[in-house]
Amino acid sequence: MNTDMNIHEYIAHYAKEVEDELKRLFPQEWDIPGILRESAQYSLDAGGKRLRPILVLAAAEAFGGRMEAAMPVACAIEMIHTYSLIHDDLPAMDNDDYRRGKLTNHKVFGEAMAILAGDALLTQAFYTASQARSLGVPAEQVLAILSEMAEYSGARGMVGGQVADMQAEQGATDLNGLEYIHLHKTSDLIIFSLRAGGRVAGADEKQLEALTRYGRSIGLAFQIQDDILDVTGTLEKLGKPAGSDEKQQKVTYPFFIGLDESMQRVRELTDEAVSAVSSGTVSNPQRLLELADYLMKRDR
Amino acid sequence: MNTDMNIHEYIAHYAKEVEDELKRLFPQEWDIPGILRESAQYSLDAGGKRLRPILVLAAAEAFGGRMEAAMPVACAIEMIHTYSLIHDDLPAMDNDDYRRGKLTNHKVFGEAMAILAGDALLTQAFYTASQARSLGVPAEQVLAILSEMAEYSGARGMVGGQVADMQAEQGATDLNGLEYIHLHKTSDLIIFSLRAGGRVAGADEKQLEALTRYGRSIGLAFQIQDDILDVTGTLEKLGKPAGSDEKQQKVTYPFFIGLDESMQRVRELTDEAVSAVSSGTVSNPQRLLELADYLMKRDR
């Protein structure tokens, strides 16, 4: 473990490593239409916190696993996250022109290409994750990772959350409905990332369960923090106007329980996350603890 | 092997088995939005020849494998085929209102839901295929199947073919370009289906190579036959007006080399397919031979 880095340096360091890997996903020698490569790469390069891949790596490290062996899965989950943003931004969905201050995929490459680039990223993610096998992860573990990736990102996971989010309206959805959306739209990929990192390092069922509890808590905290920042943040930091959720009539935590109680909930969930990995089940939880703290305090 | 069925009965029998399995993909006890289940199921139920799953099963049988163990992969490939049709029909893509005489997914459920139902089917396909493990297929083989499924259906495979097809125009694309489109848009899923069936049955590399050659030939023949039927077929049999490719300025084999030579090419490719599995590499090629013949003679 690189104990000489503080958590900000740690995140920056591994975000950069993941980004370098992501540039190599569609090798030049592959005979694929240039525009498809360009469109997929455009969105992969569009920045972001790279939170999910960092959680994969940190979870692997927490059980003494090799970061290198976890890298294919780290890239795969970022590809899935990226495809979901491309599809989410489409005119038929959220109809967003900008994301992180850059034009959205369909504004640059057109709708048809954006749909197909998303499909290609989603599909390729399973290929990329499967490459963990050639880095020494046992076939049974890689297979379990692929199977869970499909579960947590599919109908029972992220896509289910997207559908629920699409159907939700202020006045028609309650706090339970909102929690379903957040759990699946956001927490599920986070839970998957942690479990997959744990599996790369050979974590057992009890250890995976601790990661799941940690992930559910920081995932929900992360999303509530997003809702809070939408109210309190600035355009410069968010890359989108503050208050845009309210304007779009999106259901949010502050809408239901107010800003103060939302902030309180973030602190409680962070405590729960900390407690889930502090009982001794996780061999070396230091980075996971720092990440929970970092996420609670972020302002963008 | 059920030698008492002729090839038409064989196809009907296993199409029915696959359809029964497909109904159980999103179990009622799964807590997913009802509309997502309905939308995905609508397109899975929309009929079609179920050619790809039948090729999985026939390839497994050709090497003495258990049909039951091949069933998850058979369903998975039909899910991938189905998602590709849903996305292909979208207004931003081919903008089709009908498929096989039924309203397309987005005409019934709206565009956003159609995009998400496609995403859910694509994702779930990897989960479904992974279930072959619990039916006794070794983890290494299942992993190889998932990895190849991603390759053959992603950027280097079907999605790449879709992109090339979207960009192709009469006058701007040549016969080589058309072959690229057909190879990836159609043949790749067919090649995958055969290889995956072979893997379920424990086929070795040389045997998988024979299946690949067979698949490349019948895949191309299948697509040329489709082009021919678009010129010569009837609305009643095709579920769409004959001549619709010509009207949409689609590049087709008859457009490049005429009807007679296209028909000749189908016969040649069928001969190549037959020869690929007749040299003794494939233990029991009977159904594969019958399927090649059936596909050449089909009129819808």
CATH class of chain A: Mainly Alpha
Order of helices and strands of chain A: HHHHEEHHHHHHHHHH
If you compute it from the alpha carbons, what radius of gyration of chain A comes out, rounded to the nearest whole angstrom? 18 Å
> Quaternary status of these chains?
homodimer
* Basic shape of chain A: globular
Please tell me the CATH architecture of chain A by its name: Orthogonal Bundle
Q: How helical, in percent, are the residues of chain A?
A: over 70%
Average pLDDT of chain A works out at 93
The total count of strands of chain A amounts to: 2
Secondary structure class of chain A reads mainly alpha
Unreliably modeled segments of chain A: none
Strand content of chain A: under 5%
The DSSP helix count of chain A reads 14
Your description of this structure?
With 300 residues, chain A is mainly alpha-helical. The first copy, chain A, has one domain: Farnesyl Diphosphate Synthase (Orthogonal Bundle), CATH 1.10.600.10. Chain A has helices spanning 7-22, 34-44, 51-62, 67-89, 105-109, 111-130, 139-153, 158-167, 175-200, 205-232, 235-238, 244-247, 253-277, 286-297, and strands spanning 98-99, 102-103. In chain A, strands 1-2 form a two-stranded antiparallel sheet. Chain A is globular. At the A-B interface, α2, α6, α7 and α8 of A face α2, α4, α6, α7 and α8 of B.
